[in-house]
From TrEMBL:
The lineage of its organism: Eukaryota, Viridiplantae, Streptophyta, Embryophyta, Tracheophyta. ATP binds at G100, Q101, T102, S103, S104, G105, K106, T107. This is Kinesin-like protein. It comes from the Eukaryota. The gene is LOC120255789. GO terms for cellular component: microtubule. It comes from Dioscorea cayennensis subsp. rotundata (White Guinea yam). GO terms for molecular function: ATP binding; microtubule binding; microtubule motor activity. SUPFAM superfamilies: P-loop containing nucleoside triphosphate hydrolases (SSF52540).
């Protein structure tokens, strides 16, 4: 039965199905009452055992327990109802019926059982402090088939409703939460007072209604330590005091009592029918709905409840038949089987409480997890920060190294004036940046990776380029040179590689120093042919296409050079080799034009780099000489040489100036002597004092132009030289140097046309870039090129500097080449780049940039 108004309880069940058991049926014989004694009634029923009752006819009735008239209610309770009643505290529904004739002692027995049950329930609760119990109490009576709430003073009938889930329940029934045992007792007394009682002939206090007291007990563990602990047990125990069956004749009922009796008997008859049918099984129809009593007690009679029935009888012979009917009812009831199971329920409150505790547990776990996780993350973050700081430091170092290398290489490029080198530098920069980036990525990906910027592998790029702090510009230059040789000179800047170097070789001996140095030209063609300087079996192999040497050497050494074949030049002695090595290092293209600081840096370069750069042969002695560069702490000849060379150059400059002044003076004197018939001696230092300089200049320039053509000298070289040297008397030295150099080249080396062809191809492309269509057409017409012909630009390029005898053609060629190469401001170019630098200081100048189409000058002694 579900009673409206009670706390909603969800019955879960024990999951194991109900345990089937028969109803516990007992019979209690009350003592003869005063009226029966007065009528000399005697007891016709005798309990011959605890389970068997026998009437005067020796008929035996066996039940679960039988209690004689002398038996106390407590004993009846303990032996017939206690076990069933206390099932409620374990979550099993239970019901205790008292059934019998009117005035047989039902109410008397039920009151006693209820009292004992309350006592035992509270005793159980007290003994189980680990669980929390909630007791709720409700009470109804069915009077004349009307349901009434005994806890309410409102006598209005309540409806009995059926619900698919809740079952049959009484609508709007009040349910009191029991505070304590006394409260429950008070409620029981209140219900007792509310019950309909009427006086009959058999019972002054006859109960005229069926009373159903329901005590619902919910219990749950106070601590939720395991799965079962949070289950709440909920069950109800029904104390059912039925109205007494009566015969109207015996009860002398009339009027209201007769009407009550008819309702009572009808409901009891239905109850009997239900019991009888249930005793035969549950296959047939069970007429629960034939009365409100059976309808409400449906679950207690044949469902999920343990049921105990105490049948009370009067021992008087006058009630023998009624007593026998009661025993027959009891006998049928004893056959009824119920299936009670534990009602593990979870009420809304229990569910909320459980969820709250579960949430608290999860929150605790989460806090713990967050705490531990936070600690882990904190450690990880600190490690990452340390790695980042380390990487930042390494990045900073790398950037500094890169900038240093960039600065040095830029200096070199400024000196060389080679766009190809610029591209190399771009690639180098990209490579460096890529390297730095990759290094950074590497550090990011593997924090344990230690980057050592001084490791050689980091200097070894796919193109064998060095980008480290000790950047090996020699390698760069060499790489670029070799590549330039492989690639076509496809651009003007490529021609900047046409470096021709003039070295001033210090005289080995003091005697030689005292002698006047003679200008000689050692020019190594820049083609693929290599040059070797064989000095007393010390073969000095210079990088192909790297060295052009215009050396001031002893006259006898010049002779040796000229007689020593084309590929091997014997110039230097052993003792002068150190100077050669230095000069070589400073004369090899860009590297050889490094300022002194760069030369100093050479001494600190990694050994491997030096070995790559200075491939000077295998002679041990030569290696020993090379060791000079491997020992940074050892004072190198470089500075000394530079100083001495500078001193020498200074002297040479003074000589040149003196010669010029002397020439001028001699010319004047000659004119005077001619006037006075005098003669004067001439000192051969490249300028005949007796010759008019203007005529001599034109003659020498014409010779040089012829030699340029014969030696396939770069058109740009010709152009620059042609535009820079226009007859200034001070240019005599440069003119003579250039002439002698060309004479040497003409006599010594085979000049290749390949580079010249490439140069013309470059100029052809420059025409497209630097000249407009109108300018080009104008030039085609001027130079006799058919406008409708093919490859007009190439035709024009091939015509440049082709007519050496035609001064106007040469001049126009020079002008056009200058325009194509961007050489628009001759005043920005220094003549020293074509000759000896008479600049005594070692400072490095950046007045010109190869990117502007100008050859950069240097402090050094190189010539282009
Ligand atoms: N076992 C008993 N020992 C002593 N007195 C008893 C016993 N049983 C019943 N009585 C007394 O019998 C009288 C009638 O009992 P009770 O009212 O309990 O009968 P009842 O079956 O409830 O009758 P009704 O059906 O009319 O209500 C009461 O005065 C009660 O005190």
């Amino acid at each position: 039965m579900r009673i409206a108004g009670e706390d909603e309880v969800m019955v879960i069940g024990d999951g194991c199905g109900g345990k089937e058991e028969r109803m516990l049926v007992s019979v209690r014989i009350r003592p003869l009452n005063s009226m029966e004694i007065a009528r000399n009634e005697f007891s016709v029923w005798e309990c011959i055992s605890n389970t068997t009752i026998m009437n005067q006819n020796k008929c035996f009735y066996e039940f679960d327990r039988v209690f004689g008239c002398e038996c106390t209610t407590k004993k009846v309770y303990e032996n017939s109802a206690k076990e069933v009643v206390l099932s409620v505290v374990n979550g099993v529904n239970s019901s205790v019926f008292v059934y019998g004739q009117t005035s047989s002692g039902k109410t008397y027995t039920m009151n006693g059982i209820t009292e004992c049950s309350v006592a035992d329930v509270y005793e159980y609760i007290e003994r189980h402090e680990e669980r929390e119990f909630v007791l709720k109490f409700s009470a109804i009576e069915i009077y004349n088939e009307v349901v009434r709430d005994l806890l309410s003073t409102d006598a209005r009938p309540l409806r009995v409703l059926d619900d698919p889930e809740r079952g049959t329940f009484v609508e709007k029934l009040r349910e009191e939460t029991v505070r304590n045992k006394d409260h429950l007792k008070a409620l029981l007394l209140f219900c007792q007072a509310q019950r309909q009682i009427g006086e009959t002939s058999l019972n002054e206090m006859s109960s005229r209604s069926h009373q159903i007291l329901r005590l619902t007990i919910e219990s749950s563990a106070r601590r939720y330590s395991d799965k079962d602990s949070f289950s709440t047990l909920s069950a109800s125990v029904n104390f059912i005091d039925l109205a007494g069956s009566e015969r109207a004749s015996q009860a002398l009922s009339e009027g209201i009592r007769l009407k009550e009796g008819s309702h009572i008997n009808r409901s009891l008859l239905t109850l009997g029918t239900v019991i009888r049918k249930l005793s035969k099984g549950r296959n047939g129809h069970i007429p629960y709905r034939d009365s409100k009593l059976t309808r409400i007690l449906q679950s207690s009679l044949g469902g999920n409840a343990r049921t105990a029935i105490i049948c009370t009888i009067s021992p008087a012979r006058s009630h023998f038949e009624q007593s026998r009917n009661t025993l027959l009812f009891a006998k049928c009831a004893r056959e009824v089987v119920t299936s009670a199971h534990v009602n593990a329920v979870m009420s809304d409150k229990a569910m909320v409480k459980h969820l709250q505790k579960k949430l608290a547990t999860l929150e605790t776990e989460l806090r713990y997890t967050s705490s531990t996780s936070g600690t882990f993350h904190s450690v990880a973050l600190r490690e990452r920060d340390a790695r980042i700081r380390k990487m930042e430091k390494e990045m900073k170092e790398l950037i500094q190294q890169r900038d240093l290398a960039q600065s040095r290489l830029e200096d070199l490029l400024l000196v060389v004036g080679d766009e190809q080198a610029s591209r190399e530098w771009d690639e180098l920069s990209q490579l460096s940046a890529s390297y730095v980036s990759n290094a950074y990525d590497d550090v990011l990906s593997a924090s344990d990776t230690t980057f050592d910027p001084l490791k050689e592998e980091y200097y070894t790029s796919p193109r064998n380029l060095s980008i480290g702090p000790m950047s090996n510009s020699v390698l760069v230059t060499r790489q670029w040179t070799e590549e330039a040789e492989q690639d076509s000179y496809s651009d003007f800047e490529d021609l900047c590689k046409e470096v021709q170097c003039i070295e001033v070789v210090e005289q080995k001996t003091s005697a030689n120093k005292e002698s006047n140095p003679l200008l000689s030209v050692n020019h190594q063609k820049h083609a693929s042919q290599g040059a070797s300087f064989n000095t007393d079996n010390n073969l000095v192999k210079l990088c192909p296409n790297e060295v052009s040497a215009l050396s001031l050497v002893k006259e006898e050494e010049i002779q040796n050079v000229r007689t020593n074949g084309t590929d091997t030049i014997r110039v230097y002695s052993d003792e002068s080799y150190r100077s050669l090595a230095l000069r070589k290092s400073r004369s090899c293209r860009a590297t050889m034009m490094m300022p002194s600081q760069c030369v100093k840096d050479f001494h600190t370069r990694p050994q491997g780099i030096y070995q790559k750069h200075i491939a000077l042969g295998s002679n041990p002695e030569q290696k020993a000489s090379n060791d000079v560069f491997k020992k940074p702490n050892k004072k190198c000849v470089s500075e000394d040489n530079i100083t001495s060379i500078c001193e020498f150059v200074t002297e040479l400059k003074e000589i040149a100036q003196v010669q010029y002044q002397k020439t001028t003076t001699d010319s004047q004197e000659l004119r005077q002597s001619e006037d006075f018939g005098m003669t004067s001696s001439v000192k051969d230092i490249g300028l005949d004092p007796m010759t008019n300089w203007s005529m001599e200049f034109e003659k020498r320039r014409k010779d040089i132009i012829e030699l340029w053509h014969a030696c396939n000298v770069s058109l740009i070289h010709r152009t620059y030289f042609f535009l820079l040297f226009k007859g200034d008397p001070a240019d005599s030295v440069y003119m003579e140097v250039e002439r002698r150099r060309l004479l040497f080249l003409k006599d010594t080396f085979f000049s290749s046309m390949r580079n010249l062809r490439r140069e013309r191809e470059m100029l052809c492309r420059q025409m497209w870039r630097r000249l407009s269509a109108i300018e080009r057409e104008r030039l085609y017409s001027k130079w006799g090129i058919e406008l409708c012909s093919k490859k007009r630009r190439m035709q024009l390029a091939n015509l440049l500097w082709s007519e050496t005898e035609n001064t106007e053609h040469v001049s126009e060629s020079a002008s056009l080449v200058a325009k194509l190469t961007g050489f628009l401001k001759p005043e920005h170019a220094l003549k020293e780049m074509f000759g000896l630098s008479f600049t005594p200081q070692m400072m490095y100048k950046r007045s010109c940039s190869c990117r502007n189409g100008l050859y950069s000058n240097s402090k050094s002694i190189q010539f282009f």
